[in-house]
Amino acid sequence: MSGAPRRREGKIMGSRLDRVTEERLRTVACLREDGVDPFPHIFRPSCSTRAARELLEREGERTTVISIAGRVMAKRKMGKMAFLDVRDASGKLQVSLRKDLLGDKCYGVLRNIDIGDFVGVEGELFLTKTGEVTVEVASLTLLSKSLRPLPEKWHGLVDVETRYRQRYLDLISNEESRRTFTLRSRIISATRRFLDGEGYLEVDTPVLQSTAGGALARPFVTHHHTLDEDLYLRIALELPLKKLVVGGIDRVYELGRVFRNEGISVRHNPEFTLMECYCAYADYEDMMDLTERMFASVAGEVLGTTRVEFRGRIVELAPPWPRVSLREAIREACGVDFEDYPDAESLHERLLQEGVRIEGTPGRGRLIDELISTFVEPKLEQPTFLVDYPVEMSPFPKKKRGNDHLVERFEAFICGLEFANAFTELNDPVDQRQRLEKQLRDRSGDEEVQVADEDFLEAMEYGMPPTGGLGIGIDRLVMLLTGQDSIRDVILFPQLRGKRDD
User: Which of 39, 111, 129, 482 is most buried, taking the most CB atoms under 10 A from its CB?
Assistant: First the structure.
């Protein structure tokens, strides 16, 4: 970089942010007047900061000239010497600038470097007397001028609203956030590798669908102007994947975004990442085996252990996980045996006696679901499969062998949070149609209604083999493996209420 452009002085009105931004804009103008591009097109570092550290460990006290690039995170000036902390995606590295080595003109460039700027440096690596790996700068290049200062507490941004709305500031400021989202990427990759290794084929299916099916949820609706038709953002991956099983893809999975027009909480985001897989000639017992092996495999690959800390508990993910009858779990938790209440009215009355109130006229399935969330889930700390659900709760599983009132379904819970849902899939098209129609009648006033997808029912009539199906919430898996309590801390851009101009 040639020259040392001066900063222009002047009284600037407004907030501190406005003043700093105006000052930096003036610096940019000065740089350009002196023929220096404050936003050059390219800089090719020879290594990352982590690789630079490893290089010095191999070569000893000094290395040949290397180049690194990154954001300036600290600036310390001591007379005729200065230090910068430069951080890239792999870590942070100290660089030293000596006036006697660089000369007045090049050393003067420092006056135009602020915390937040991107720089590129070249020089030899050495170890300081305090043991700090450092680049002795022979050349300094400004790569991008930061016009806004980092937040006052950039070294640990704690304002939750800012962290979620301006995730880039969170990533700049918080090492834990960078670690979480790095692990998220590795968790997703490890999940894919596990399923690929099990012989599953990854596919993509439409996000826009003509009917909202595959789960009980309120959909988002949009309109296609050319077709003049309403379309729905998918609420599940299930139906198209099972059509592919009909088509002969015996092991298939998709890992993608789904959308549910429902509440926002520490557990729920309207847009989230779901993995669903289907295996021909399998049942829910096989899916339980797949689930516990998948969790253990992903944790082992990403964290190097199957023991994780989540919600203040040490959780062991290694198989086997307990398999507990849903009926027994509810009966043990609150004394209610849902088999004693064959209709919604009588069960609703019993829930009222237990102090559980639900608005409207809920069906029997929803009432049982309320029993689970109120009394059972909070007690499930170690990984546990709840198995064999009432038929009213699920239109897609096969009925349990030996009990037509139940279906072969399980949900997996850890520390009171649901992580997986799976069935022995129903492949009788007549039974499937009847169950969907009954559910529509029973839940006619409910916004969370499973729609009868005629195209799916027609596909079923061509014949689907016995099949096991599994769904896992990827965001919750990331919460588990990174020790985060809120789903917003594992989604880069969580849904928030729009900003209001007060």
Answer: 482
